[in-house]
Amino acid sequence: MAEKLTSRAEDYSKWYNELVVMADLAQHSDVKGCMVIKPYGYAIWEKMKDALDKMFKDTGHQNAYFPLFIPKSYLSKEAAHVEGFAKECAVVTHYRLKTVGNEVVVDPDAKLEEELIVRPTSETIIWNTYKGWIQSYRDLPILINQWANVVRWEMRTRLFLRTAEFLWQEGHTAHATAQEAIQETEQMLGVYADFAENWMAMPVVKGRKSESERFAGAVDTLCIEAMMQDGKALQAGTSHFLGQNFAKAFDVKFASKEGVNDYVWATSWGVSTRLMGALIMTHSDDKGLRLPPMLAPIHVVIVPIYKGIEQLDQIHEKVKPLMQELKAKGITVKFDGDDTKRSGWKFAEYELKGVPVRIALGPKDMENGTIEVARRDNGTKETIALEGSAAHIEQLLKDIQNSLFQEALERKTNLTTVVNSYEEFKTLLDEKGGFFAAHWDGTAETEEKIKAETKATIRCIPLDAPEEDGVCMVTGKPSKRRVLFARAY
Predict the structure, then answer these.
(1) Is 483 within 8 Å of 465 (Cβ atoms)?
(2) What average pLDDT does this structure show over 136-153?
(3) Are strands 103-106 and 26-28 parallel, antiparallel or unpaired?
(4) What is the distance between the alpha carbons of residues 2 and 349, in angstroms, rounded to a whole number?
(5) Residues 207, 208, 209, 215: is their CA dihedral positive or negative?
(6) What would the pLDDT profile of 195-207 be if each residue is shown by its tens digit?
């Protein structure tokens, strides 16, 4: 590992782009705007996926799968929805190629009667399907989740954070009452916040989007917002109360217990591979990734220091009982006996890849019955007895998970500022960034003015924001509570 990462202080954006590639997480593909997620990156995504999938199932949801292609006419049925996604859609117009000379061309005779949209999100195709599934209150609620890929045409891309095609999950539920649907929207936001904080070790603010930032076609959008190391916010998950908008667009009605026909109430909610970007930017440092143990593909790596194959075999035999004990505790452990690479190279490589705990031992440790244990989060090392070390390592992983969360929480706290004047807001936004709790008059005009002049947006209206009489920092008009502004990814 000869290359050195650009430091965060020197160029945060360059640091991020280099780290994603150097840590073997992903790479740009030959398809413009799309990425290849490499095995190590995909292993982290799988851990995210598995944890979330269990949380969804524990709250009564089931997985299903719906088509990649959506008839164009479906998008036209919900006006706000189509307007929200129209500029991002990839459109399929033909279904066949043919060879002319040595060239492959689109067959002009194979034009589709109706163009197909490559899904930017699946509300329309799913609600068209639900129409056949729902007749009465006995068919409700429907609690479905889909793991899929989606396409939203992006010209300016950044691996994981913004690509034309990305992986995600999208939940789509149908309910008999508005209250049930609202409870579902809130419940799933809680699931996302739980996952972000307890698995990703990433503190978040739970909030409500302003009307202009709301999901296209939603009545209300809830979100979790996280703060990255460079003082920019990142939207880490959204949960939408769709009201009866999609049920009306696709004529999805049910007979209530009283025998009255009514439109059903809907929600949708989703997180994507953007969480990978959030994980990297929340925790990593100038040496590489720092992965919270809950999501690390390898929890512990053992690097033997030896001369000759015989010594390597002896070390391997010595640590086998520890490896078995760790595996029995659900801790993934790798013994790196690759004799083509020096131990110093391995140390740097596993540091770059963010493995939470590194164990090293050589001939002297063999004699003394000890191992050297290094923590990736703070870089500290200690020498402990090999005997009984499994319990120590198990606790260490819990400590690392907690310490990463506490460090990120302290940063979020330090990067959250209460401001009362627009001048103060603009000055501090440039100086330090972060979240700014400020009064806003509630108008789209003021929101747009702030965005145009500062590139900061209302990230959310925090759900726990108390009522507080004040005046808008821009217009001086009355305001009932503070909202959170930030520049964002």
Answers:
(1) yes
(2) 97
(3) unpaired
(4) 10
(5) positive
(6) 999 999 999 999 9
Q: How high is the pLDDT of residue 155?
A: 79
- Other C-beta atoms lying within 10 Å of the C-beta of residue 336: 16
The DSSP output letter for 367 is H
pLDDT over threshold 80, residue 332? yes
Q: Is the pLDDT of residue 303 over 60?
A: yes
Radius of gyration of the chain (CA): 26
How many whole angstroms separate alpha carbon 147 and alpha carbon 182?
A: 23
Beta bridge partners of 254: 262
Token pair recorded at residue 40: 């190590």
Task: Find out whether 83 and 336 touch, Cβ atoms under 8 Å.
Answer: no
Give the tokens for residue 103: 């060239």
Q: Quick check: helix, strand or coil at residue 210?
A: coil
Predicted confidence band at 3 (pLDDT cuts at 50, 70, 90)? Answer: confident
Residues across the chain: 489
Q: How confident is the model at residue 414 (pLDDT cuts 50, 70, 90)?
A: very high
**Structure token pair of residue 131:** 């129409």
Crossing angle of helices 389-414 and 309-328, in 10° steps, is 70
Q: Are 440 and 458 in contact (CB under 8 A)?
A: yes
Number of C-beta neighbours around residue 248 at 10 A: 15
φ, ψ for residue 280 (rounded to 5)? Answer: -60, -50
